[in-house]
Amino acid sequence: MTGLRVVDAGETGALRSQALWHGIAETMTADSQPTLSFCRPTEPYVGLGYHRSLEELDAESCSRRALAIIRRRIGGGPVYIDDQQLFFQLSLPAAIAPARVDLLYRRFLGPAVEAFRTLGIAAELRGLNDITVEDRKISGTGAGRIGDGVLVVGNVIFGFPHHRMTDALAFPSDSQAAECLRLMRRHVSSLRDEGATGVTFEEAKETLTASYAAELDLTPEAETTTPDEEVAIGGWERRFSDPRWLAGPSTPRRTGSLVKISGDAWVWSTSDAGVSLEASIACGRIERLHVAGRGINGSSQRIAREIAGHSSDPTRVENTLHAHGIEGERIARLLGPGLRLH
C-alpha cells in the first residue's frame, strides 16, 4: 500500500452515483489500495437501505415527482438525494478495517469531522455515526461490507429541501407528517443553513482528501476506475434497475411507523385495539405525545400531556405510566416499542 487512491467521478446519474462505490468495494482484494471516491448526482432520487420496506415510501408521490427509488446494499433508512449533495466513500480491504462497527465509524468518520471543521463547520461525531453541529445532523453516513471490501460512506449537504424528503415518505396521518417535517427542519442541517455558503464542491473534495490521507498516512493519488470496476459498476446499475431487487428481502412487518430523523430525533406512530398513539422524541425528551380512539377519555389525554416534555428513557417512562393504572399501562404498551426501536 503506497498511496490513497482517489477516484473523482464528478457529476453522475442516479444509478451510477450508487453503483460507483458498490462496484469499487466489490472488486476489492486483500492487496487493494484504500480508495476514496467522490460523485455528485445530477438528478434527484430516493435511496433506501437494504433491509427497509418499500412501504416506508409514498410510491405515488415519488412517481408523481419523477423520483427513482434505489435500494442500496448497506443499511439505513430512506434518504432524499439531489445535486446539492456531494458523496464521499472510503473503500478498504476488509482485512485492514476494524471488525466492530463502532470502531469503524470512530476512525473513518473522524477525518470527515476534521474536514468539516476545516471548512468552518463546528462538527462533531455524535452517537454511533451522526456528524452534527450541536444537535443538527450535517452529514448522512453509513457503513457495510460488499465482498472483500468494507465501506464507510457519507455526504456533504450543501442545501437540503426538507419538504421534499417528507413528501417522499409514507405516513399514517397528516399530523405525523407535519411532526416529521418540524423535526427534520430542526435536526437536519446543511452548509447553507450553517452559513458556510462560500464552500465549493471542489474545496470540499480537496479538504476531505487531505483529511483522509492524513488519517491513513498515505499520499493521495488521483486515478480513474479500472476496467474490472466498470464491469462491477455496470452490474450494480442493472441490479438497481431490477424490480426484484427493489422489492427487497422479506422482513417482518413492524407494528408501527418509525421515521428516524437523526440519532437524537424520531417520530413514532402505532395503534392497537382502536387506540392510536403518535409521539415525537428529540434529544432525550418526548416533545409531543397524542393518544386518541375508542375508550380514550380525559384521563388518558391528561397522562399524555404530563408525559410530554419528560425523559424518553423507556424504563423511566414506563414506570411513570404504570403508576397511572390501566390508562397509563395502555399508553405504555403503545409508546414503549417506539422508545426502544430507534
Topology:
Blueprint: E1 3-12, H1 14-26, E2 35-41, E3 45-48, H2 59-64, E4 68-71, E5 79-81, E6 85-93, H3 101-118, E7 124-126, E8 130-133, E9 136-139, E10 142-146, E11 149-157, H4 162-168, H5 174-187, H6 201-216, E12 219-223, H7 227-240, H8 243-247, E13 257-262, E14 265-272, E15 275-282, E16 285-293, H9 298-307, H10 314-322, H11 325-340
Parallel strand pairs: 1-2, 1-12, 3-4
Antiparallel strand pairs: 2-6, 3-5, 6-11, 7-8, 8-9, 10-11, 13-14, 14-15, 15-16
Helix pairs in contact: 1-7, 3-6, 4-5, 10-11
Low-pLDDT windows of residues: none
Give the tally of structural domains. Answer: 2
Largest sheet: 6 strands, mixed
The pLDDT mean sits at 94
Structural class: alpha+beta
Structure overview:
The chain has helices at residues 14-26, 59-64, 101-118, 162-168, 174-187, 201-216, 227-240, 243-247, 298-307, 314-322, 325-340; strands spanning 3-12, 35-41, 45-48, 68-71, 79-81, 85-93, 124-126, 130-133, 136-139, 142-146, 149-157, 219-223, 257-262, 265-272, 275-282, 285-293. The chain is an alpha+beta fold and 342 residues long. The protein has eleven helices and 16 strands. The strands form four sheets. It has a six-stranded mixed sheet with strand order 10-11-6-2-1-12, sandwiched between helices. It is elongated and about 70 Å long. The chain has two domains: 3-247, 2-Layer Sandwich (BirA Bifunctional Protein, domain 2); 264-340, Enolase-like, domain 1.
